Amino acid sequence: MNVPVLALTATASPTNRKKIIKSLCFRSDSVVILDNPDRKNIKITVIKIPNNVDDDKLFHWLIKGVQQQKSAFERHLIFCSSIKDCSNLFCTFYRLIGSTEHFNMYHSKTPELVKEKIRTDMGSETGKIRVLICTNAAGMGVNFRNLNNIIHYGVPHDLDTFVQQMGRAGRDGSFSEEILLVKKNKKLFKKIDQDIVRLVSSENECRRQIISSAYLTSSDDGDNHLCCDVCAKNCNCGNSHATHPLYEWTDVPMEEELLTRDVTKEDKLILHRKLSTYKEQCVAESSIAILRDDSISLIVDNTDKIFTVDDVMKYGSIWTFNIAVSILDIINEVFGDNEMYEMSSSESDVE
């Protein structure tokens, strides 16, 4: 029977689209309809901060704003990468402000009654909460009113998460700010997807264009200084625009660019031989060539930047998740370094 099936998702990278298609057993001729995740009313800014900066110093302007203006202060959402970071930042606010009337914390371990109270407050135009410190638990399935300021205190692990979290702001179409605070950390780029690495490390490419290209869509140039910090540096329109208090921080040069490994000609020959052997084994077991020669060539040519299953699927045009896992194991046999770069989820916020 030819029963039409429609699968919908708000945000999915090319790799995740492949996983969805496979898990739902869609046919190879299924049609994928894409919509650009670009939010033109949100300015994207990356600010690099020192590793040892104190939270009370970094967010002094935010704490002062809550203390002085209370319910009249603009709403801010601060996304943290883990419950631990979320709790530490909340404790800083509590130590300096005291009453939690105008700020709160939201993560997967927050009691449901408290979550509901926060959602009700943030969903109301007359709500009192001005700063919500949270994890990805507040990144999906919520609609906060009059929210035009998103701060990422720590870099999200993947682009889908970032786009979903950034999308909490400006849902009424009003101009909003997205600020990514990036610490100078050697291990940073070993824990996140390469698309995010490119987003936070680029110095001369429009960040909105980076997001669009990662989703295989295109984006028109933004409104100069209202587009992103890179475009703002090159803006000569002469129009005045507000500057965010966080802009006072001086950029700190990152110690690493995109995560790469050194690959010799011998390494490539060994890897090509092992992948070809794996292909022959697959054919012998199933009589189907599930790994093509062109994919093998792509993987070998891009081995210097393949460290995760997502990287295998992206750079090798591999559609089958299990095959990508096996290929990553083969790469690890040759180089023996992938375990160094595997992301630890011990502090992640898991629902």
Please describe the topology of this protein.
Blueprint: H1 14-23, E1 42-49, H2 55-58, H3 60-69, E2 75-80, H4 83-97, E3 103-106, H5 112-122, E4 131-134, E5 147-153, H6 159-166, E6 176-183, H7 194-201, H8 207-214, H9 229-233, H10 265-286, H11 293-301, H12 309-316, H13 321-335, H14 338-341
Parallel strand pairs: 1-6, 2-4, 2-5, 3-4, 5-6
Please give a structural write-up.
The chain is of the alpha/beta class and 351 residues long. 39% of the residues lie in helices and 11% in strands. The protein has a six-stranded parallel beta sheet, with helices on both faces. Helix 10 runs antiparallel to helix 13.
Question: Descriptors for this entry?
Answer:
disordered C terminus, 14 helices, six-stranded parallel sheet, alpha/beta, 351 residues
